[in-house]
Design goal:
The chain is an alpha/beta fold. The protein folds into two domains: 5-178, 3-Layer(aba) Sandwich (Rossmann fold), CATH 3.40.50.720; 189-323, N-(1-d-carboxylethyl)-l-norvaline Dehydrogenase, domain 2. It has helices at residues 13-24, 36-45, 67-71, 85-92, 117-124, 139-143, 157-167, 180-203, 207-227, 238-247, 254-263, 268-273, 280-294, 300-310, 315-323; strands at residues 5-9, 28-32, 62-64, 75-78, 102-104, 130-134, 148-153, 172-177.
Length: 335
């Protein structure tokens, strides 16, 4: 299998960073954007002024509004927001060439169905080989070539190896895994937990509280992954612990910074109203709450975030309820 060309579907900050990265790895790249102004900005000024303004984009990366043109490649990265993935994949179905792998780079759970992104792609693009790219990365750092590492999860070890060799560079290191479910769970749930950690920061509860929340949050991800057939130990790697640590500790994270603002007393509406980029954890919190209840998986931290975001629950009351939960065994992955 020879991979020479790559289509990147989605020109937000992360999609743009990945386009730059795979071009750096030697692939010819077409980048699809929904917004005409983004296409014009990239093609005319070598900048994504709307989503990644401080980074120069190589002149040989071409942006397009045409999905068919972008999908005409040996490899396609899907980097649209999770709640829009089904719609975009439906439009891509007629243009997809047989055997071309799809790399899912969107993190989340579909709100209406509770489906993982791999399930969405399997339903809309049947027979397409798929894998999940996830891990502890910030778009700007990856785009300018700072060292980073990601998980590339795929059931087909041979395919995973070929794609890793095609997109990997010394400063963008893919690590292979066959545990697609856990990789997806880590990428989705960490956004919700990052909001919780931001609230802890905004309320001034201290670093010790945040560390405890991260640790207990990782246990919650492991419970849900196990319920779907994943392996909790996978989450000790880049796709779980690594991604959670990054997203739940830095103001570069949209989810963490949103939580900080809520903890400081701002309203959800006011924070979201000032943002153009999607804060995925807000949508995932609702979907996650439904999925956890349906599968009888105990996720009290994530449920608390859902209550704050979608039920107008008082933060102080929610925190008090969490702290008054019964004491338990630390390594209990049941409830």
């Amino acid at each position: 299998m020879k991979i020479r060309t790559c289509g990147v579907i989605g020109a937000g900050a992360w999609g743009t960073a990945l386009a730059i990265t795979v071009r750096r790895a030697g692939l010819a790249v077409k980048l699809w954007a929904m917004e005409e102004e983004v296409v014009a900005s990239i093609n005319e000024h070598q900048k994504n002024i709307q989503f990644l303004p401080d980074v120069d984009i190589p002149e040989d990366i071409q942006a397009t509004n045409n999905l068919t043109i972008a999908a005409a490649a040996d490899l396609v990265l899907l980097v649209v927001p999770a709640q829009h993935l089904r719609h975009i994949c439906g439009k891509l179905a007629h243009a997809w060439s047989p055997g071309v792998p799809a790399v899912i780079c969107s993190k989340g759970i579909e709100q209406e169905t509770g489906a993982l992104m791999s399930q969405v792609v399997s339903e809309t693009l049947p027979e397409v080989p798929l894998m999940v790219l996830t891990g502890p990365t910030f778009a700007k750092e990856v785009a300018i070539g700072l060292p980073s590492a990601i998980t590339l999860a795929c059931a087909d070890e041979n395919l995973s190896r070929h794609v890793s060799q095609a997109i990997g560079t010394p400063n963008f290191r893919p690590y292979q895994s066959d545990d697609v479910v856990s990789a997806e769970m880590g990428g989705a749930v960490k956004n919700v937990l990052a909001i919780a950690c931001g609230i802890v920061q905004g309320k001034g509860f201290g670093d010790s509280a945040r560390a405890a929340l991260i640790t207990r949050g990782l246990t919650e991800i492991g419970r849900l992954a196990a319920a779907f057939g994943g392996k909790p130990e996978t989450l000790m790697g880049l796709c779980g612990l690594g991604d959670l640590m990054l997203t739940a500790t830095s103001m570069q994270s949209r989810n963490y910074s949103l939580g900080v603002a809520l903890g400081e007393g701002k309203t959800l509406h006011s924070v979201l109203n000032d943002r153009r980029a999607v804060t995925e954890g807000v949508h995932t919190a609702k979907a996650l709450y439904d999925v956890a209840n349906k599968n009888r998986v105990g996720m009290p931290i994530c449920a608390a975030v859902y209550a704050v975001l979608h039920q107008d629950a008082d933060i102080d009351t929610v925190v008090r309820e969490l702290l008054n939960r019964p004491f338990r065994e630390e390594l209990d992955f049941t409830q």
